[in-house]
């Protein structure tokens, strides 16, 4: 097999093509066929606190209590957030979402884990 049909992260040959990306089901690594393996870890990649890749539409869980800036509200640790959107990081806040009881807000990916 050629190098494009092997995972650049774990070397597994058990990979499949999904749209414009190649996906490794063994280690969950995704990469673009036309870029080198080093570019796959670029600025477009958003990872949670455990290092899992996040994508638009994922559900995440907040891992610690977060104060809402400019308000007395607190997002409690363990709060599940559904249907996130990844946005260009402004001050590190690269997740846009709506939280029940609080409303629309941005979160930092380092304070969430994929659920």
Structure description:
β8 (85-90) and β9 form a beta hairpin. Strands 1-2-3 form a three-stranded antiparallel β-sheet, with no helix packed on it. Strands 7-4-11 form a three-stranded antiparallel β-sheet, with no helix packed on it. The protein has a three-stranded antiparallel β-sheet with strand order 8-9-10, with no helix packed on it. It starts with 15 loop residues before the first strand and ends with a strand. The protein is an all-beta fold and 115 residues long. The protein contains no helices and eleven strands. It has strands spanning 16-18, 21-23, 30-32, 60-62, 66-67, 74-75, 80-81, 85-90, 93-99, 103-107, 112-114. The model is unreliable at 36-42 (pLDDT under 50).
CA radius of gyration is 16 Å
Poorly predicted regions are 36-42
Straight-line N-to-C gap: 34 Å
Mean pLDDT: 84
Q: What does the overall shape look like?
A: elongated
Q: How many DSSP H or I helices?
A: 0
Describe the structure concisely:
The protein has 115 residues and is an all-beta fold.
Secondary-structure map:
Layout: E1 16-18, E2 21-23, E3 30-32, E4 60-62, E5 66-67, E6 74-75, E7 80-81, E8 85-90, E9 93-99, E10 103-107, E11 112-114
Key words describing this protein structure:
single chain; 115 residues; mainly beta; 3-stranded antiparallel β-sheet; 11 strands
